[in-house]
Amino acid sequence: MDHRLGLGPAEEVGPVDCPVSGDLPAWLDGTLLRNGPGSFAVGEGRVNHWFDGLALLRRFDIADDGVTLTTRYPRSEAYHARTQGRLGAREFGTDPDRSALAALRDIVDPAVTDNASISVAYLADRWLALTETPNSVAFDPETLDTEGGFSFDDTLAAEGSGGLAHLHRDASAGETWGFATRLGRERGYALWKLPDGDSEREVVGTVDRSRPAYIHSFWLTENYAVLFESPYRLHLPSLLYKPFADAFEWTDRPARLLVFRRDSGEVVAEPEIPPAFVFHGVNAYETDDGLVVDSAVFADSEVMDAFRLDRLDSPEFTQPTAEFRRYRVPLDRRYGNVTSETLHPGPFEFPAIEYGRRGRRYRYAYGVGAPTDDEGRAGFADRLLKVDIETETTTVWHPPNCFVGEPLLVPRPDAEAEDDGVVLTVALDAGEERSFLAVLDAESFEERARATAPVAVPFGFHGQFVPRGERYCRSND
Ligand SMILES: [Fe+2]
Questions:
Q1: pLDDT of res. 108
Q2: Ligand 1: distance of its center to the CA of 288 in Å?
């Protein structure tokens, strides 16, 4: 089975019908919006890293009369540059050809990409494609037509701070929370919040770091926001002549969990933990004596190198495995002793939960799994996992001859049980060379329906399901 079919390039399609087989639940009525790279080409060459693929938005419209797929490349500045065979601005792992003067100018006013290929979110009263630069792209969720570039109108944006493409929405407070990585004169991390409908983020708390870590996601509980600070740190002078991906390096600095109070922004705990690297947190919640922080955890940052295109595009591609790990963080001391346990040995990545349990005690975590070789290295994701934390058992959905993407749990309306709903994923049938939307029963973890697209859709990163007539993903939050 050759995973390279999932690396594109993709033509835009749709809306096209995706014939449904099986039993699609009548209540599943809405849109799955997803984002991810669609093409790696730049003129006769290509970009260097998976994260630099040109953003391709994907939309599965799911209704009782059928399922359609639409894909569109946002008309970003990056898109227009690439249609002319060049890179418009600095990507994560690929720099445009720059003069020394331009490189110096970039230090003061970095021209970074608007190739927003990682996730989507409803913010500031519009749908945005997001990446880790300050430059997002607004789009129409019905047509996927580009509405224009978007960046926040606030102090963080003025500093050119990078951001996370993984945000958290607190529905009860009507706020979205996120972190920015400051790379200017002041360097470190800034915790921010954004009331629904606003476009100006409020900085809640900051931490100074001469060498900020690469941070991709965070955790949000009722009272705390938590960052995983790995030893994978920026060497700022390298940015003069290297892309971002090459300016980060694995250092001998300690790893820490940074625990911010949401009300004051104060860091109340920053315990050291054994070195490790994290893309995706799973969930966190408060207990009587501290925090439980659950995550997909790599031993180190090698996965960043594994996602370079020359490695990803190899038929012998392997990557390090992440395990599903639980940290217990005491909050009675600033530098307490964190303990950890393995909830699943992995490979376990692209985690998802019932989002109404975000910040609360929960039982089920979903993720992608993969085959492993004798050395424990993972291939490409080809199965979905449902981990029952309470019974320490795992259920696997492993469709033959397929690759799978991020799972997404959609609760049934009025559901009370945590796994009363469906799990959606976009899978690629390598034999048929077609992608399909798979709908699994979240409780039994058996496939109940699939809607097959007439084309192969490249592997994506992240998405959201939006019930028809609503703006945010459904949750019991
Ligand atoms: Fe991510």
A1: 56
A2: 30
